[in-house]
Design goal:
- There is one protein chain.
- The protein has two domains: 3-9 and 103-297; 17-82, no CATH class.
- 8% of the residues lie in helices and 35% in strands.
- It is built from two helices and 20 strands.
- It has helices at 223-236, 272-281, and strands spanning 3-7, 18-25, 30-39, 45-48, 56-58, 61-68, 72-79, 84-89, 94-97, 110-114, 119-122, 137-141, 146-149, 164-168, 173-176, 191-195, 199-201, 214-218, 246-249, 293-297.
- β18, α1 (223-236) and β19 (246-249) form a beta-alpha-beta unit.
- α1 (223-236) packs parallel to α2 (272-281).
Length: 298
């Protein structure tokens, strides 16, 4: 297929004081790496790497690594977990079943998990497996052991403070946007990327964030689904606060919108391509904040 881009102007409890997971090495001298762990300013976390080596103090926001002298399975324990605001984990040697025994740090604002085949996380299944509520940045990619039915229980709600959300190659994700309060899109999102995930449903009446400036949704969408997404974006158009920005519905096996590319002026638009045209050109004069481009399959 070719592409066309339109352009124009429950009861509460204190968070656990520890964060624990396992590292599995298969040979002597292997290094385990955490891309980053951020600790609140003026605070210290102590890590026990689980191999009998001396504990380390963590402060600030930095890459963390440790060399294991022998092959084996090691339990890592990090104290003062409520002071951890950032976790970026991408090492395949990670083994972590998120639970009450190995909880998700509750006060995270930044979470990036990528390519962790040893991760098992049934979001919201127990208190220790809740989605952190204070996140502003969330990037989950290629996590075969992740199960997340967004909004199904309070612990599985979409974090309301997010400004940047990317969900990529997550077969275990179910998100019926707006079906319940906990499945609403966060109101202050500026960037939203949804690529090759499980079941994601966006209806024509769902509410998009006013501040959104980057939106990419490539998920084997049918023509009716593409039309519904464009209709939902147009529903938010009159009150949009984001400036310019891009909409990308072109890849991931998506179908083309209804109508004829590249669309034409129509007030209000009655098919997918005309809706895409209006989001950029606004011949109906409904919004002071037009999108810079909409890219769809043709």
């Amino acid at each position: 297929m070719s592409q066309l881009t339109l352009t124009g102007c429950g009861p509460s409890a204190s968070p656990p004081n520890y964060w624990t997971f396992r590292v599995v090495t298969t040979a002597a001298g292997e290094t385990f790496t955490l891309q980053a762990v951020g600790v609140n300013a003026g605070k210290t976390c102590v890590v026990d790497w689980g191999d009998g080596s001396a504990p380390e103090n963590w402060t600030g926001d930095a890459l963390r690594s440790h060399v294991y002298a022998a092959a084996g399975t090691y339990t890592v324990m990090v104290t003062n977990a409520p002071e951890i605001w950032k976790i970026d984990m991408r090492d395949a040697k990670t083994s972590w079943t998120v639970s009450n025994a190995a909880p998700m740090p509750a006060n995270l604002t930044y979470l990036h998990l990528y390519g962790l085949a040893g991760l098992t996380w049934d979001v919201g299944s127990v208190a220790g497996a809740n989605m952190p509520t204070n996140l502003t940045f969330l990037y989950l990619r290629t996590l075969t052991g992740l199960t997340w039915d967004v909004g199904s229980v309070a612990g599985a709600n979409m974090p309301t403070n997010l400004t940047d959300l990317r969900l990529d190659i997550l077969a275990g994700l179910t998100w019926d946007v707006g079906s319940v309060a906990g499945a609403n899109m966060p109101a202050n999102l500026t960037s939203l990327t949804l690529l090759d995930c499980g079941a994601i449903t966006i209806d024509a009446t769902d509410v998009f964030p006013k501040s959104l400036t980057t939106f990419q949704f490539e998920n084997h969408l049918t023509q009716a689904q593409v039309d519904a997404v464009l209709a939902a974006l147009y529903l938010a158009f009159p009150t949009r606060t984001g400036a310019n920005g891009t909409i990308d519905l072109a890849g991931g096996g998506n179908a083309a919108p209804s109508g004829t590319a590249p669309g034409t002026a129509q007030c209000p638009p009655a098919n997918g391509w005309n809706t895409a045209y209006e989001l950029v050109n606004d011949s109906c004069n409904v919004s002071p904040n037009h999108w810079a481009s909409v890219t769809c399959q043709t």
